[in-house]
């Protein structure tokens, strides 16, 4: 995830929890971006965004999330085997459709 994407996540968080971030300086925000970036660097913007959205939807305490809470709320990642299986199934469906079309022409 890029620094700009981390900054977007933090901007949304700051907008939803304005009182918490009221006294933050630009330097404080830069440190926050760096901290979140070091923890979230192995994840995509989409994964982190989904985790953040789920956190926001279920937050009942009124405090902004930590990076760990964002990770906890991310949808499960698919394994390499699951991704490969999806690819094989999609290819199987594509071939079946081609065979059906050929049979329909004969």
Secondary structure layout plus pairing:
Blueprint: H1 3-16, H2 26-40, H3 45-58, H4 67-72, H5 80-105
Helix pairs in contact: 1-2, 1-3
Q: How is this structure best described in words?
A:
- The structure is a single chain.
- The chain folds into two domains: 3-75, Helicase, Ruva Protein, domain 3 (Orthogonal Bundle); 77-106.
- It has five helices and no strands.
- The protein has helices at 3-16, 26-40, 45-58, 67-72, 80-105.
Q: How would you concisely characterize the structure shown here?
A:
The chain has 5 helices and no strands. With 106 residues, it is an all-alpha fold.
List keywords for this structure.
about 110 residues, mainly alpha, 2 domains, about 70% helix
Distance between the termini: 51 Å
H-E string:
HHHHH
Task: Output the CATH topology of the largest domain.
Answer: Helicase, Ruva Protein, domain 3
- Tally of strands: 0
Instruction: Tell me the domain tally.
Output: 2
Shape: elongated
Low-pLDDT stretches: none
Radius of gyration: 21 Å
CATH architectural type of the largest domain: Orthogonal Bundle
Q: Output mean pLDDT.
A: 93
Give me the number of helical elements.
5
Which CATH first-tier class of the largest domain would you pick?
A: Mainly Alpha
Please give the share of residues in helix. over 70%
Q: Structural class, judged by helices and strands?
A: mainly alpha
Name the beta content range: under 5%
**What can be said about the biggest beta sheet?**
none
